[in-house]
């Protein structure tokens, strides 16, 4: 089932005002994903589907003012909050773009690290992955995190996860293995489940063509 960008934008418009409060329970694993990128001062980083910009601060702490953070999101409502976050913090090295993942162009930037934090729809789009990874630096570090179904025997939990994620996800493909399409594109790929088991953290390096 393909993703539905129009539905996604509408869904996020409805919940944008309380998004940071709604998602506060996943903050720890988002920080773990940033840490998994092993960022260094001066790195250029892509925050794919950045939402309200929760991950900006921990990324910028690692890359410093000489680094560059490129972030995009198709939701104007979430991106508007990200712009306020950037302005309030006075960050000068953050470049925000309103765009879908399969359409964005980075111009001269070739990210050395890519973060996919709760971007299930993006991870299920071959066109989006082709576009984003195709513009990254050779051997770029990649980290991803999000929700994942439990094994089939835990169907009550999975039913709950499907129901509660319909406001965040429009494509339930590979909800039991969200990393399925990006894993073959990476080297040194590793994945682990976190918390009670319905969150995952994965990382690797961009495989050479």
Task: Give a concise summary.
This protein has helices at residues 5-15, 19-22, 27-36, 56-63, 76-89, 120-123, 126-134, 155-165; strands at residues 44-48, 68-73, 94-98, 113-117, 141-147, 186-194, 199-206. With 209 residues, it is an alpha/beta fold.
Q: Could you characterize what this model shows?
A:
The structure is a single chain. With 209 residues, the protein is α/β, with parallel strands linked by helices. It is 34% helix and 22% strand. The chain has a 7-stranded mixed β-sheet with strand order 3-2-1-4-5-7-6.
Task: Write out key terms for the chains shown.
7-stranded mixed sheet, 7 strands
Overall spatial form: globular
Number of strands: 7
Uncertain regions: pLDDT < 50 for 5+ in a row? none
H-E order: HHHEHEHEEHHEHEE
Number of helices: 8
Rg over alpha carbons:
16 Å
Sheet with most strands: strand arrangement: 3-2-1-4-5-7-6
Structural class call reads alpha/beta
User: How far is it from the N-terminal to the C-terminal residue, by CA?
Assistant: 28 Å
**What portion of the residues fall into strands of 2 or more residues?**
15-25%
| Quaternary structure state of the chains depicted | single chain
Rounded mean pLDDT is 94
Q: In percent, how helical is the residue content?
A: 25-40%
Topology, element by element:
Blueprint lengths: L4 H11 L3 H4 L4 H10 L7 E5 L7 H8 L4 E6 L2 H14 L4 E5 L14 E5 L2 H4 L2 H9 L6 E7 L7 H11 L20 E9 L4 E8 L3
Parallel strand pairs: 1-2, 1-4, 2-3, 4-5
Antiparallel strand pairs: 5-7, 6-7
